[in-house]
Amino acid sequence: MRSLITGGAGFIGSHLAEELLRRKQEVIIVDDISTGTMENINHLKANPGFFYHIDTIMNRNLMGRLIKKCDVIYHLAAAVGVEYIIDNPLESIQINVQGTEIILELANISGKKKVVLASTSEIYGKDRPGKRSFNEDDDRVLGPTTITRWSYSCTKAIDEFLALAYWREKKLPVIIVRFFNTCGPRQTGRYGMVIPRLIKQALLGQPLTIYGDGNQTRSFTYVKDVVKALIELSENKKSIGEIFNIGNPNAISINELAKKVLKLTKSKSKILHIPYEKAYEKGFEDMRHRCPDISKIKKLIGFSPKIDIDGILTQTIKYFQR
Prior knowledge:
Layout: E1 2-6, H1 11-22, E2 26-31, E3 50-54, H2 60-69, E4 72-75, H3 82-87, H4 89-109, E5 114-120, E6 133-134, H5 149-170, E7 174-179, E8 182-183, H6 194-203, E9 208-211, E10 217-219, E11 221-222, H7 223-234, E12 243-246, E13 251-253, H8 254-265, E14 271-274, H9 276-279, E15 289-292, H10 295-301, H11 309-321
Parallel strand pairs: 1-2, 1-4, 2-3, 4-5, 5-7, 6-15, 7-12, 8-11, 9-14, 10-15
Antiparallel strand pairs: 10-13
Helix pairs in contact: 1-7, 2-4, 4-5, 6-8, 6-11, 8-11
């Protein structure tokens, strides 16, 4: 078995590559190192089953050659992180939409290769009164096009529409996964990811910056739990043509998260709340609550996160300390 991972030098991609290699599969990765790093994959280079290309998925000729060689494609390459999306709106739209279209088209003409498409909880958009968790068939509620952050949700929705269209019209085997705050070692805080940012600030004795009042809740999933789910979905025929939430159904407020970080790092840092408009852009909107309903994936493959938030923080703190 040979797998192709786009965005393979990224946080999730590097962990996925590592696990597939552990299972004695061959792995090819493509990454332009815009948000990934060589440090994430340096330890894999000595493995004879590992191959990497530092290039963009927009390189159609390269992608055509690589897709012909593989059995399954894990399409993780995308512009990610709220800060990155706001700072690079045009590039984000082009990579997320045009890049995915290239992957799906080439997978189809190269023998209908299986594609596991990474999507996002951003798909669901705004809060709904009284609603704390989201299932795969829930409606989407978005803000105006003048607010940049909603462009990410829209690009990933287009990705999903494209994938499902290829499945329905061309019978290209596709599986769509929606990630809910995947966390763990190797994740960077550069693009707005909250856990690595808070841990780094705590270890350096800096104020822990929380955007908004901190009462918003999120759920966090350990990267190795996510990787296991990705592989099991890719191997299950009943997952083809379907969408799955991958996340942790247990939520925590960002204020409580910061307190846990302070306790586990034994840091004396203070907590500093910053208004959204200072952190991002004027008119920025955030969701008060976002938590996945995982009943669908649990029913199919028995998925249930094994590592809780304390375990996630402990492992990530050890990584940053090293």
